[in-house]
Specification:
The complex is a heterodimer of chains A (179) and B (158). Chain A has 179 residues and is of the alpha/beta class. Helices cover 44% and strands 11% of the residues of chain A. Chain A has a 5-stranded parallel sheet. In chain A, α3 links the parallel β1 and β2. Chain B is α/β, with parallel strands linked by helices. A 5-stranded mixed sheet of chain B has the order 1-2-5-4-3, with helices on one face. A two-stranded parallel ribbon of chain B has the order 6-7. A two-stranded antiparallel ribbon of chain B has the order 8-9. The model of chain B has no long low-confidence stretch (mean pLDDT 92). Classes of the chains: A alpha/beta (179), B alpha/beta (158). At the A-B interface, α4 of A face β9 of B.
Chain lengths: 179, 158
């Protein structure tokens, strides 16, 4: 609130504050994540509950998008069958960078109840697309998905935007030294 | 109409094609019929006064080891009686006449039975897989089905 007070009564010469542009951008990105409206199985029912007023997913700054090209992240909510897996991958590939994935529920984490006899089920969506946050549960309660969303926001907030490759190269160098 | 009466009437009409009746509670009474005459039997069941089976409740398939079976559950909305037909066919030539033109609902149900059990419904206008991908190999609900190692580059086992 201090900032807002100052805006009302700025210092002489105009109000200003110091900070990193990266932090500002990440703050903005983490508070306005648009997700792909996409439900697969019973987890999608729980996901709908999260969208409804009682749990109010929109307070995280999320808006459902019906096109992957407008979405920032995708919630894989349910069993990924082999037939569907190719479609999921295609949707993910159509999303613009930067993009994130929340894997919701046991089925998309690891195959869930279909792990042994599910001839038609992909045993974990991380076999085809990279997952950022795993939400366990069968299905997860809405609160669990909300925590997943908070974790995703945390991840986005601490992400590198500038000199990303330089930093990654440095990390790789350190890793190689450890070996 | 009771199952025994239906059975007697069918026997009178189709003779050798009607093989046996099993009527033990609590399961539904079922009649085992020969595959060859199935279409005519079904036409008779639907169109004869006193039968009037206008509703195909369910069409499913069984794996009996050596044989496959196609199972039909019928119900008459008008007369409120029901009967079950079973057709048993060998696994190496699982061919059953299609009843799709008698009850339209049989269209997708026969496709599902074909998809899961591999029963070939002769005369079906569009007998392709309905749940599995079109290029799927094998019939998943058969007892001797082996889960594939890989599908389109994705590993299937856990």
């Amino acid at each position: 609130m201090g900032l807002l007070n100052r805006l009302g009564d700025p210092y002489e010469g105009g109000g200003y504050f110091l900070g990193k542009l990266e932090d500002l951008l990440n703050w903005g990105r983490s508070k306005s994540d648009w997700y792909l409206q996409f439900g697969l199985a019973c987890c999608a029912i729980e996901f709908m509950a999260v969208n409804a007023p009682h749990f109010d997913f929109m307070r995280f700054g999320t808006i459902p998008r019906t096109s992957p090209r407008q979405a920032d992240f995708i919630i894989v909510s349910g069993t990924v069958t082999l037939k569907m897996a190719e479609r999921v991958k295609r949707l993910y590939e159509q999303m613009a960078e930067p993009k994130y994935v929340i894997s919701m529920g046991s089925c998309s984490n690891c195959g869930g109840p279909y792990w042994e006899h599910g001839y038609h089920v992909l045993k974990g969506v991380d076999r085809i697309i990279p997952v950022d946050v795993y939400v366990p549960g069968c299905p997860p309660r809405p609160e669990a998905l909300e925590e997943g969303m908070i974790l995703l926001q945390k991840k986005i907030r601490h992400e590198d935007i500038f000199n990303k490759r330089k930093k990654l190269a440095e990390e790789d160098r350190l890793l190689a030294l450890k070996k | 109409m009771q199952a025994q009466e239906i059975f007697d009437k069918l026997k009178e009409q189709f003779g050798e094609s009607i093989i046996s009746l099993t009527d033990t509670a609590p399961s539904d009474a079922f009649i085992i019929v020969a595959g060859g005459n199935l279409f005519d039997i079904c036409q008779y069941l639907r169109d004869t006064d006193g039968m009037e089976f206008d509703y195909l409740v369910n069409l499913s398939a069984l794996d009996l080891g050596e044989n496959l079976a196609s199972v039909y559950h019928f119900y008459s909305m008008n007369l409120q009686h029901r009967i079950v037909l079973k057709v048993i066919v060998p696994k190496d030539n699982p061919s059953v006449p299609s009843v799709e033109t008698i009850w339209r609902t049989a269209d997708w149900m026969e496709r599902e039975a074909f998809d899961m059990m591999g029963i070939i419904y002769e005369g079906h206008h569009n007998l392709i897989r309905i749940l599995s991908p079109y290029d799927w190999e094998g019939y998943p609900l058969r007892k001797d089905y082996v889960t594939p190692e890989e599908y389109h580059g994705m590993r299937v086992p856990y």
